[in-house]
C-alpha cells in the first residue's frame, strides 16, 4: 500500500484543460465582506445557505447541511487561516448596525464614569424585513447565552430589543422573547414583534406561542427611560440572593460602594454609592408594573431594579450596553453576597485600605500617640470547628500576633463577650427615633395612670439624678421654680423627665422611669425591639461554642431585657444573654466600671472582649485591661482618626466569631 500514489482532494470543479492547473484555493478571509452600510447591505451571502421558512426552527442544528457547504467552509473554524478569518474579521454576535457599540460615548478611556454607548447607524433601515429577521435572531442568540450563564434556566428570563424611533424618523419596532420556551433552543422564528401600544405587529412563525409575561414591564422601562433600547430580565442566583441580604426582607434598596465594577453599571464611579432598588415579588409578573414604575422614577441613576426572591430587570441604550451592565450588576451582586458571608457590608465605605487624597496628610508622618505594649501571642490548638473568621497555625505564627488593632475572636481569645447596645447590637436610630419619641408622646398619659406612691418613687429617683449635675447645668436651670407640692408631683415629674431627655443624659433614675414606660409599650405591641441581622447568628455561634454574651448599656437592665425579649423578627432572645449591666455598675466612660463588671463576671478584664461604637467607652475598657473593639454601623457617629488607627474595627459582630481553638 505504501507504494500507491496518495490521493488528493480538490474543492474546485475539475478543469477541462488538463494542462491548465486549477486555480489556487482562496480562504474565506481573502473574500471578506466590506463593512456594512445602508447602501451596500445585501442578504445574498446569507441566501447561499438555504433555510426553509416553512418549518420554524428547521436548520443546520437539526441536521440539515447546506448543499453549498464545501470542505473549505466546513474546515473554516478549524484551520489556522480559518481561525484568522473568524477572529480577525467576523464578530460572533449578530448585529443590525454598521459598527459595534462602544460603552462610554464621547468619553476617554480614563473617565471615571460612563453613561452612554457609542453605536453605529442602522444598516437595515431600508430593509425592514431583513432588520426584523436580524433582531429576532439576536434576541434568540442573547437568550441562549443567558441560559448557559445560568440566568435563564427552566424557560425563565427574557430579552426585549427595540429599534427605530424619532431619531430615525420612524416608529419604534419592539421585539420580545416568548414565554415558556427553552431559551437555549430559541430561534428568531419564536420572537414577537410589537409596537409601542403593546400590540402584536407580527406573531412568531412558530405556532402556539404566548407573549412573555414580562411584556408589560418591558414597556414600563421604555416609557420612563427614553434612551432604553434593550431590556434584559434574568433569574440570576446572585441577583436573587442579593435581595435577601437583609433577613427581614424589608430593605427597599441594595447599596454597593468601592468596587471597580461599579463603572460597568453606568453613571457610577468606583467610590460612588450605587443604590439598586428592590421591589417585592408578586404571583404574576404583570403585577410588578406599578412597583417597577415607582422604582425607576425614584432611582433614575440606576439602570436596574431587583425583584425580591426573583431576579433582575436591567436596561441600556443599546443591546450591548444592556448586556454589559447586566453582567456588571451580576458581578456586584455576587461580591455583595460573598462579602456578607465574611461579615462585611458592601454598602459601607472602607475605613482603611482605600486611597484617599488628603492634603493634610501629604508628606506628614503619622506620630504614635502612645507606646504600644508587647504583642500578645495566640495559642492555637487543633480544633476543627467551622468559623466565620477561621484562624489556624499553618506556619504563620507571625500572622497570629494579637496586636492593638487585631480583631480578637471568640472563643479563641476570650470566652466572655461584653456588648454595648446602641450602634452595636441595635440601631441608634431605633432608640432616637422610636423609643425616645414614645416616651415624650405618651408621658402625661403614663404618669396620670400611676399611683401616687409610684409617682413619688420615680420623682425621688430623678431628683437624685439632678444632684449629680452642676448648679448651672441647663437641665437644672430648666427646673428651677417648679412647684414641689404633692398636688403638682405629676407635673414636676414630667418636667424633670423632659429636662433630662432634652440633653440626652444617661441617668439611673431617668432610665428606670423610661424602662417602665417601654414595658407598657412592648407588652401592648406598640413597640418591638430592633436588632441587626447579624446579632442572632452571632448568638447562635457563641452558644454553640460556650461563649458567655453579656450586655453593658446606659439603658436600665429592665429596658435591655425588654428590647431583647420583644425583638421584631427573632422573638425572645433573653435566653442567649448571660448577664446585664447598666449605670448602676458605674459610668461607661470610666475604666473602674469595667473592672467592676469583670469582678462580677469572676474574670480578669483581659479575658473579656468589649464591643461598642463609643470612643470614650472603648478607651475606658482598654484602660481597664479589656480587649476593646469598635463597632462601625451605618448611622453611627464618625470616628476620630486616632480611633481608626489604634482600635480594631468591625462592621459586623460575625467578624469576632473565630474558630474553636482558643487560649488555654
Automatic annotation (TrEMBL):
<feature type="domain" description="Class II aldolase/adducin N-terminal">
    <location>
        <begin position="137"/>
        <end position="337"/>
    </location>
</feature>
<feature type="region of interest" description="Disordered">
    <location>
        <begin position="1"/>
        <end position="65"/>
    </location>
</feature>
<dbReference type="InterPro" id="IPR036409">
    <property type="entry name" value="Aldolase_II/adducin_N_sf"/>
</dbReference>
<dbReference type="InterPro" id="IPR006439">
    <property type="entry name" value="HAD-SF_hydro_IA"/>
</dbReference>
<dbReference type="GO" id="GO:0016829">
    <property type="term" value="F:lyase activity"/>
</dbReference>
<keyword id="KW-0378">Hydrolase</keyword>
<keyword id="KW-0028">Amino-acid biosynthesis</keyword>
<keyword id="KW-0862">Zinc</keyword>
<dbReference type="InterPro" id="IPR036412">
    <property type="entry name" value="HAD-like_sf"/>
</dbReference>
<keyword id="KW-0456">Lyase</keyword>
<dbReference type="GO" id="GO:0016787">
    <property type="term" value="F:hydrolase activity"/>
</dbReference>
<dbReference type="GO" id="GO:0009086">
    <property type="term" value="P:methionine biosynthetic process"/>
</dbReference>
<dbReference type="InterPro" id="IPR001303">
    <property type="entry name" value="Aldolase_II/adducin_N"/>
</dbReference>
<keyword id="KW-0511">Multifunctional enzyme</keyword>
<dbReference type="Pfam" id="PF00702">
    <property type="entry name" value="Hydrolase"/>
</dbReference>
<keyword id="KW-0479">Metal-binding</keyword>
<feature type="compositionally biased region" description="Polar residues">
    <location>
        <begin position="29"/>
        <end position="41"/>
    </location>
</feature>
<dbReference type="GO" id="GO:0046872">
    <property type="term" value="F:metal ion binding"/>
</dbReference>
<dbReference type="InterPro" id="IPR017714">
    <property type="entry name" value="MethylthioRu-1-P_deHdtase_MtnB"/>
</dbReference>
<dbReference type="InterPro" id="IPR023943">
    <property type="entry name" value="Enolase-ppase_E1"/>
</dbReference>
<dbReference type="Pfam" id="PF00596">
    <property type="entry name" value="Aldolase_II"/>
</dbReference>
<dbReference type="InterPro" id="IPR023214">
    <property type="entry name" value="HAD_sf"/>
</dbReference>
<protein>
    <recommendedName>
        <fullName>Class II aldolase/adducin N-terminal domain-containing protein</fullName>
    </recommendedName>
</protein>
<keyword id="KW-0486">Methionine biosynthesis</keyword>
